[in-house]
Every structure is written in structure tokens, then in C-alpha cells.
Amino acid sequence: MASWQTLSERVNRVAPSATLAVDSKAKAMKAAGVDVIGFGAGEPNFPTPDYIVEAAVKACRDPKNHRYTPTPGLPALRQAIADKTLRDSGYAVTPDRVVVTNGGKQAVYEALQTLIDPGDEVIIPAPYWTTYPEAVRLAGGKPVFVFAGSEQGFEPTVEAIEAVRTPRTKAIVVNSPSNPTGAVWSRETIRAIGRWAVEHHVWVLSDEIYEHLSYDGMRTVYIGAEVPEVRDQLIVLNGVAKTYAMTGWRVGWIVAPTPVAEAVTKLQGHLSSNVADVSQQAALAAVEGSLDAVDMMRAAFDGRRRAIVAALNEVTGVTCSAPHGAFYAFPEVTALLGRPLGPDGSVVRTSSELASLLLDQAHVAAVPGEAFGAPGYLRFSYALADDDLAEGVRRFKQWVG
Prior knowledge:
Strand content: 5-15%
Number of helices: 14
Helix content: 40-55%
Order of helices and strands: HHEHHEHEHEHEHEHEEHHHEEEHEEEH
Radius of gyration: 21 Å
Number of strands: 14
Shape: globular
Oligomer: single chain
Strand order of the largest sheet: 2-8-7-6-5-3-4
């Protein structure tokens, strides 16, 4: 490539999405006729509930929905999201604080672009969703990681968070229930982080996309409800993708203080204008509707959760604690490193090499822990059919031998 053809340093320093890379390779293998069991993508295998689809069909037939909408979203949807925040999170917000985005990833990106200047630091508890640090880097910021392993239930302490705070600390990311671990952080931890943020004037980005997917009597704890004084420095990131099996509809949102929401709207006006009108109409039906369909999906996920945890713990060298939220199992696989695996006795040194070999030889797609700042782990999404789940773990167990 000639010197004038070089790409921007901004893009060159960003890593590709590891979860999407694994999913893409698995799909390419399937297209080539290989029978792959994919545990990679965080995508419910359920269809979007019928009443949501029907709302979209009706919207498609009305020409008024074939046009641009206001940049921050349809007024009715912004009001519905404000009402849903009161219903689920337990505190009131006004619609002017809501911006509808093209999926949850755009919400993360725009929030960080709005807040972060070059050199600002963002604390990210690890294991983390793979996009967080890259979105920080795209904003010119520096991700700072605080690791909490399985022995801590993947739940950080405020003492560890405080230990990495510097004068450049601008924000902290909170994600509970968590991707990739499925951890649901305790009320004590959420309160401690909220109070710490207020004391030190740190923005809180609370990713609540898995809020309705929790098990074993656990419940999502909302930082905005637990620590009311944090709301002036709180940005909530959410969307319909996981709760309503609507990953392909691309509707997320930000709830933020009005000045932040206005700044995000300004950015979005130049970035993508608005979310597709028909998708917003579908999201409106979802957010305004009951959670009955969500309860059905959660019950199915719960059964799969129990099944995959039990099956993974039967694999020699694998240890998997039970997740209490989301739809991911995050087993530790360090005991498999450095020992012969598979039919040819291959030896791997990292969980990344392990995931690659597992896909190539056993045709099972899982995401390596390196993607989440947690070497020595694998992430298995259990948002797939029961039979595929059982067959995939059976192959894993047989391959380990």
C-alpha cells in the first residue's frame, strides 16, 4: 500500500470484534457444508414475538412510516422508553433524556464520543464485552481494566476500582447482568460504585441490555435507583435486542442527562440520522407490551443454563460456575492448556489457540477469553437450540478425550 493509501491510526489501533469473527468463521464453515455448532454469537434463537412483528407489518403498509423520523427517535417511542425506565428501573426520567440509536453498539459508541477527550481514562471491569475498550480507543481515550475472576464471582470491588483511579479518570462502565460472564452484581457492589462515582465526579455508563435475563431469584440492581444522586452523571445504555429477540431490528437507546442527550443527538444527526421508522414502531410495540414473551424465553434460557453448566463441568479440565444472568457460560479452561488435545494430540498454550483448534477439529465455535480480557476462559452462548447445545458440549467432551 502506498504511503498516501495508509489507513487512519484511529482505525488501525482498533481490534476487530472477536465474537463476530468467530461467528463469521462458523457461518462460512456451515456454508461450505461443515456441521458446525455455534456457541459464539450472543443472539437468541427465538423468533421475535408475533405481536411485535405484526406492528412492523402494519407500519410497513402506512406510507407515513416510509420517511425520516426525528433524529433522537419517534416521540412515542421516547415516551415509552421513559415509562419503561420507571416500570423496570424504579425512577422517573423525561423523554427529552432519551435518544434512540441503531442498536446498543451505537449507544456505547456515541456515549463515549460525547464524553471522552484524548487521554481521558475509562475504567472497565474485566471480563468485559469486547466492544467497550475499542469504543474508548476510537474516542481517543485509554481503557483501564480491573479484573475479577471466577473466585470473586466475576464481581469487582470498589477498592480495586479506586486503586486504578487517576486524575484522568472520566468514566466507569457497569454491566450487570454481564456479558461475557453472566454475573449479576450485588446491591452492595452497585451502591458502592455509585457512591464512589459521585464522590470522585466520574461518569457512569450502565449497560443494562440483559436486565430481564436473571435466574436463581437474582434481580438486576439499577444504579440509578440505588444511588439517586448519581443520575446527573449516569448514562444508561439499553435496547430491545436481547430482551425481545430483536437483534436484527437494530434498536437501542441512551438515557442520559439532557445536555448529554442533546449532544448525542447532534452527533447522531451527522452519523446516521435516525433509526429506521419501521424498526422503531416494532420497538414501540415491544417496550409498551407485556413481558409475558420475555418470561417464556427466560424460562427456556434457564433450562439451557442448567444443562450447559452441568455438561461443561463433566469435561475433563473444565470448571464452570453457574451464571446468574444473561445467556453465557464462562468456563475456565486453563487445565487444558499445555496438554494433548484432539485426535492428533495437539498442544495449545492459550485459550485463543484452544478455541481455534476446537472449531477446526470438533466443529464447535466458542469465543476465547482473550477477547474479553480474561485469558484462560471460553465463552459459550447458550442462546441456541437444546439439541445443538447438547451435541456441541458432547463434541467438546469427546474432543478433549
